[in-house]
Specification:
The complex is a heterotetramer, with 2 copies of chain A (215 residues) and 2 copies of chain C (330 residues). Chain A is mostly helical. Chain A has a single domain, classed as Serine Threonine Protein Phosphatase 5, Tetratricopeptide repeat. Chain A is built from 9 helices and 2 strands; from the N terminus they run E-H-H-H-H-H-E-H-H-H-H. Chain A has a two-stranded antiparallel ribbon. The longest helix of chain A is centred in the C-terminal third of the chain and has 22 residues. Chain C is of the alpha/beta class. Chain C folds into 2 domains: 170 residues, Rossmann fold, CATH 3.40.50; 138 residues, Dihydroxyacetone kinase, domain 2 (Hypothetical Protein Tm841, Chain: A,domain 3), CATH 3.30.1180. Chain C is built from 8 helices and 14 strands. In chain C, the strands form 3 sheets. A 6-stranded mixed beta sheet of chain C has the order 1-2-4-3-5-6, sandwiched between helices. A 6-stranded mixed beta sheet of chain C has the order 9-8-7-12-10-11. The chains are: A mainly alpha (215), C alpha/beta (330). Chains C and D meet through helix 1, helix 6, helix 7 and strand 11 of C and helix 1, helix 6, helix 7 and strand 11 of D. The structure holds adenosine-5'-diphosphate (ADP) (2 copies) and magnesium ion (MG) (4 copies).
Chain lengths: 215, 215, 330, 330
Amino acid sequence: MSDVICIFDLRRMFTHAAEQIRHESELLSQLDCVGGDGDHGTTIVRAMEMLEYEMNAKSDRPLDVRLRDAGWSVLGVGGGASSALLGTFIAGMGDVELGRECDCKRLAAGFASGLRAVEKQTKAKPGDKTMMDALVPAVQAIEAAAGSGESIARALKLAADAARSGAEATKKMIARYGRAKFLGERTLGSADAGATSIALLFQGFSTAFAKQKEV
Amino acid sequence: MSDVICIFDLRRMFTHAAEQIRHESELLSQLDCVGGDGDHGTTIVRAMEMLEYEMNAKSDRPLDVRLRDAGWSVLGVGGGASSALLGTFIAGMGDVELGRECDCKRLAAGFASGLRAVEKQTKAKPGDKTMMDALVPAVQAIEAAAGSGESIARALKLAADAARSGAEATKKMIARYGRAKFLGERTLGSADAGATSIALLFQGFSTAFAKQKEV
Amino acid sequence: MRMKKFINDPRQLTAELLEGFTLAFPRHVRLSGTSAIVRATPKPAGMVRMVTLGGSGHEPGLSGFVGRGMLDASIAGEIFAAPGAVKCIEAIRDACAGGEGTLLIVLNHAGDVLAANIAMQAVDREGLNVKMVLTEEDISSSVGDRRGLVGCVAVYKVAGAAAEAGASLERCFEVAQRMAGNMRTLAVAVRTATNPVTGQPIFELGEDEMEIGMGQHGEAGTGRMRLKSANQTAEIMLDQLLTDLAVSADEEVLVILNGAGATTLMELYLVFRRVAQALEAKSIRLVRSAIGEFITTQEQAGFQMMIARMDKELIELWDAPADTPFFKMP
Amino acid sequence: MRMKKFINDPRQLTAELLEGFTLAFPRHVRLSGTSAIVRATPKPAGMVRMVTLGGSGHEPGLSGFVGRGMLDASIAGEIFAAPGAVKCIEAIRDACAGGEGTLLIVLNHAGDVLAANIAMQAVDREGLNVKMVLTEEDISSSVGDRRGLVGCVAVYKVAGAAAEAGASLERCFEVAQRMAGNMRTLAVAVRTATNPVTGQPIFELGEDEMEIGMGQHGEAGTGRMRLKSANQTAEIMLDQLLTDLAVSADEEVLVILNGAGATTLMELYLVFRRVAQALEAKSIRLVRSAIGEFITTQEQAGFQMMIARMDKELIELWDAPADTPFFKMP
Ligand SMILES: Nc1ncnc2c1ncn2[C@@H]1O[C@H](COP(=O)(O)OP(=O)(O)O)[C@@H](O)[C@H]1O
Ligand SMILES: Nc1ncnc2c1ncn2[C@@H]1O[C@H](COP(=O)(O)OP(=O)(O)O)[C@@H](O)[C@H]1O
Ligand SMILES: [Mg+2]
Ligand SMILES: [Mg+2]
Ligand SMILES: [Mg+2]
Ligand SMILES: [Mg+2]
């Protein structure tokens, strides 16, 4: 069996990711209290549940179409800055052709395309204490892993690790985007809410995949 | 020296009474919290300070005129139910002629006249848990004392005692007038705010007079 | 809960707030003497004047409804305290000087009624043409001596419209009485206010308690219970109001929801939604409504629900133009 | 402070509040789709449409200003959350279908701007005639990326009046930009709000602390200090605003005081009084004002002070008739 993912894998990835995020939703809202409006847990769970729902819908369209539609659905439900960016990311993944099955290289191209879409909407870069601190290294890790011929499971594991370190690093940063940017030094010491949920997203992707391969 | 009071006595009476009430103003507001709006201390102090001010004004008008004007001044400043009734009481004292000096009998007639004026404005009777529970027995005590030839100091002492017992008795009553009437049994156990301040008023009248006579 | 308010010297509070209010609405109102808020542009001579009185601390409160189509004057007392009777006498005299008689609208609270009665006795002796209407619609107390709550605003509106249209004093009085007799209010609170002068809360409610039957000044009510949802609270209150007013199917009603201070409009919308649904289910016709903060109780959390039976004429008067600081009808 | 609110299922909160709102103001508004509040009676064809967007939980908030003379549509998000970009695209399409182009007014908050940008890219691709204005007047942050606070209401008012009078999209845009560029706002809080969905306060202030520079959703500010009097607070805030806007003597200004939720109108009057006195002392002419609750932050205690430089045309547009649920000009 070749190393590819199909809609069933994608479905499991999003189910696991939603699970992770739901589980930490109170923490995510608390992190958003530091400089934001204290609702990130609520908004990101709403977005994740929409993605889960879309991935579970019956349809035999290619993965890119599924992702694009799912991303736009998130852009439909609304939920602040994080949903707009997450929706853009997922929809953007579908801007490259993925077919009904795709290998690690294609998948990495999809993630890279999603990141490009996000970068069109925000000027935030790693270091600005936003979800970009987790998203950018995660996508780079997948690309690197795919480039050196790693398996999908391995690539996602590396992405999850990169996202987690990226989120962790936001603790030492001062926010420059989002609601928290007005607070300056006060945001030092606690992690960015959006970066933390992106780390959970990739952790969910990874564990879902790891588990599947163990079977 | 015959047993009469003049404007200097009246002045001292109101100064002492205002002093007593000011001293207990927090307690009076607290008592008003039970069934009322928690402001009796504030309103009654405002009224007493107006009376003090009026009594201290330079003028050689007769006592009845002084009292009538002072009462109407209280009706001018405003301050809820208690000021309206206190103002009416003091103004009503001036409805009988008191001259520039008056003896115990005349003074008792003045108090009785004040009470009649109040009774025209409220249907509350002793037993209804209002200031009437202190005011009615106080005035009756002065009248009785004057009738049996007691001194002014003694009459005011008896009035103060009667007012205090009357106020004390309101603890066992259920309010039937004023803001507290809507609360029924909840008002059991604590004294009526207005009755308590009337007791302090007469206590002030009495101590002022007692002190003067000691000199 | 410690008081946290933007105030200056508490003894100057009322004077300063009246000054601020008149500075904020120069097109509508001005201060006459120390405590009467009157229209910036008086009504033409020969028309009935509408006057009310009551304590401050309920902003927008009574004075917020002085203006074309509603009140001509509002006599403001100190915080939570009736104005002095003398002030009332002066304001009524002024009103009578300009108009064809004066309608005095008084909310049934001991202090206000005492001041109004003393004033009425005085102006009667002077032979002035004044009639008084008492609003007493709080169903938490028994018939015969009920408190006046937000319902006065409806009375100001309809009687004010009649006066503005040139009706006689008798006619304005009749309209005011009809409105007053056809309305019922009930208040609920979940958190009480602090008195801005004493700095103290009047009483405290438990962490998960609410109380139905509150007074206008944070006076405790008679129906303490566990905090309920918006829907349940709406139903409990509406049922009591409809029963007391004996409303039957096909009748037309006005509903006013009056926020106490801290309760959000968001919550009032939720409550209103259920009221509208419940009325619809009973085939009672919700013909008019007003939702907002009209007569508040400092930063108390809770609201008043008023329901009134309307007839064709009352609806027309409700719809008539009004232009006051806090109630406008185009 | 435990949350005590009259709500039902928190997940249904926004849907229920929009339903309650439209039930309460049937003469002014109706719901289009799930989350666009539009005028009950649309503007005649061939006129510019005014559209805004933003999260709920700020009632009356943006949707409270939909009606004649102000907005044509308001796209409501969930509590404190921008609406979805797709909803914005749909609402702008609808607006453009009826009118001569659409002016989209967006408060500068990351989520709102992201949604608006995605929507603008989409409708631009469709060739629709839409222009966007960003309001960013919160002086607590540095120039270039300031938050949008209550100032949007002034923009709705003047640009809405221009649109109502038949001005072109370019003209409405120019008016909106001029108003937006000439206004400055600063917020203060003494007690924070609880989020109605999570039930949690965003942060807590000490017993005798206040904080200047608060955001619109209870986001912490940057100027924590001891609680001050009404006069002192008014002076501190006004000075910062006047300096930032560089107002000089004889200029004409509009002042808006926007209550955060629990702070009483009584307190706002006191603050307003001092603002009026201070402006007078500086010979700055206070030509218009608005005082009340326009865009709230749940039961937060505090307020926003907005000051704007006005010119003859802006004043005329401010004075033009408006009839919306929470802003009326006769
Ligand atoms: N301009 C931006 N660019 C990138 N990320 C952003 C931006 N604004 C906000 N974010 C991210 O969104 C998170 C907050 O999301 P959320 O609380 O759901 O939305 P909102 O801030 O609208 O309430 C922040 O922690 C940050 O990671
Ligand atoms: N109708 C009445 N008759 C007699 N006394 C009354 C009446 N109403 C109120 N009071 C007295 O007034 C007191 C409350 O006074 P106060 O708090 O100053 O005024 P308010 O009730 O207007 O706030 C009550 O404790 C009671 O003694
Ligand atoms: Mg947030
Ligand atoms: Mg009282
Ligand atoms: Mg009082
Ligand atoms: Mg948010």
